[in-house]
Amino acid sequence: MLSDGGDDDSSAPARFELQEDPSFWKDNNVQVVIRVRPLSSSEISVQGEKRCVRQDSGQSITWTCHPESRFTFDLVADEHITQESLFKVAGVPMVENCMAGYNSCMFAYGQTGSGKTHTMLGDIENGTRRNNENCGMTPRVFEHLFLRIQKEKEIRRDEKLSFTCKCSFLEIYNEQILDLLNPNATNLQLREDAKRGMHVENLTEHEVSNAREALQQLIEGAANRKVASTNMNRASSRSHSVFTCLIESKWESQGIKHHRFSHLNLVDLAGSERQKSSGAEGERLKEASNINKSLSTLGHVITSLIAVSNKKSQHVPYRDSKLTFLLQDSLGGNSKTTIIANISPSSCCAAETLSTLKFAQRAKHIRNNAIINEDASGDVLSMRLEIQHLKERA
Ligand SMILES: Nc1ncnc2c1ncn2[C@@H]1O[C@H](COP(=O)(O)OP(=O)(O)OP(=O)(O)O)[C@@H](O)[C@H]1O
């Protein structure tokens, strides 16, 4: 899937080019990607260029402190990988999955300052990818999604294909759900029912008909996020954010009306941090302990999912945090999920980087069961014909 780019400079980390292989991403329900960010100037001023990781191939990375540990993932994106390359490899197949009716989720995990917001949002203020190489996964996803919708509508004009996309944007701050598209709505409640499944009551949903409108919602909501300056990151996200798009399509074929729908969740988690390094006190300390608590629940959920799949347990503690309760379909349920675990390569962050690599390794064992979400209705004769048609295709 990946090839060695052959870097001759022995002091610099080896480079590995990403290669697109959409079938791989479509066929697997949970993918785990490691993204290594470049060393920051403050890390260089403390530890020079000393690194705690060495990339061995496009899929494996070694934590080089004592004792060395080697990890294998679906993909390891090194510090030279651009936003565009990462999007082509991991984002494009996700859009295709949504178009096919699969719920999809991508979330960025990692210690504070490791590059989660850079990966999920990047620079969203200066337009989308044609003129802005730093814009991240979410704006690129929307640009591609609406191009695909346009193309599909043109190809399938005979079937009267129509799409609707509705966006919402929330954050979980100190275990409360806030609506980023309506900052006056605080402490929203999670509800579960047969019709809508897990959802947030009274959360604003805006219908968007093109990438520009989706980006507008993203910019508006991102501006309302709780961000603060900490010792570890000048603009640290103090909440988990979830941007959701419900994509519905309707069409008619041979007298049958089809309705397909999928949820796309794009999640930027708040970063874990050691209270000593972050220098947190007062409100920052309360935020940090809530962040660490919900991230450790995420860890427990993953451990329990592995135990359940090995028939060693039956209970998964989704309800122990708002984050895991909200994302339960994405973790062990009906979704195709991509986890991007962000790490710093600096030896100053060796302990946090090891902890992220271990988390990502456990996450690789999650088993999801993604199905195409589709209903069909029509008269009996048409339904019989459709069943016949499906049998012939099987
Ligand atoms: N791949 C990358 N290439 C270049 N710069 C990067 C990369 N990843 C992160 N950065 C830079 O590193 C800094 C910290 O990144 P970012 O804010 O995305 O971290 P974070 O994981 O979201 O942190 P927090 O959890 O504290 O919100 C930012 O200045 C960002 O632009």
TrEMBL record:
GO terms for molecular function: ATP binding; microtubule binding; microtubule motor activity. Signal peptide: none annotated. Keywords: ATP-binding, Coiled coil, Microtubule, Motor protein, Nucleotide-binding. One of its GO terms (cellular component) is microtubule. ATP binds at residues 110-117. Residues 29-366 form the Kinesin motor domain. One of its GO terms (biological process) is microtubule-based movement. It comes from the Eukaryota. InterPro entries: KIF15/KIN-12, Kinesin_motor_CS, Kinesin_motor_dom, Kinesin_motor_dom_sf, P-loop_NTPase. It holds the Pfam family Kinesin. Belongs to the TRAFAC class myosin-kinesin ATPase superfamily. Kinesin family. KIN-12 subfamily. PANTHER family: KINESIN-LIKE PROTEIN KIN-12D, KINESIN-LIKE PROTEIN KIN-12E. This is Kinesin-like protein.
